[in-house]
Amino acid sequence: MSEKPHNNGHFPWRAAALVSAMGVNVAVCLVGGYWLGGWMAGRMGGHPVAWKAGGVIAGLAVAAWSIARLVQKALGDADE
Fold first, then answer.
1. pLDDT-derived band of residue 7, with 50, 70 and 90 as boundaries?
2. DSSP secondary-structure letter at 7?
3. Nearest CA among 8, 2, 25 for reference residue 73
4. 45-52 contacts: CB < 8 A, separation 24 or more?
């Protein structure tokens, strides 16, 4: 028999906070990747669009990893 989580009335607020944190996380990582790509284009040369696209893809990967860790901690499944 599975145990039900304790519902103390704060779950909707906790879920809203988690979703908000995920959105901010994605936005910051994407903007940071775009900025880093532009900075790298200025430092290394090459086509700025390629560097910025690479930065956005890297930012998306970092955001996915970070969100996975955030959800893992929120659900209490962290291996720490």
1. low
2. -
3. 25
4. none
Task: Say what the pTM is.
Answer: 0.75
Q: How far is CA 61 from CA 2, 20, 30, in A?
A: 34, 19, 9
Contact 24, 63 (CB under 8 A): no
Distances (CA, A) of 50 to 10, 57, 59: 45, 11, 14
Instruction: Average the pLDDT over 1-17 and give the result.
Output: 68
How many whole angstroms separate alpha carbon 75 and alpha carbon 67? Answer: 12
* Tokens of residue 5, six digits: 């989580």
- The closest of 37, 35, 59, 36 to 46, measured between CA atoms, is 37
Under a CB-based contact definition with an 8 Å cutoff, are residues 61 and 29 in contact? no
Q: Are 56 and 33 in contact (CB under 8 A)?
A: yes
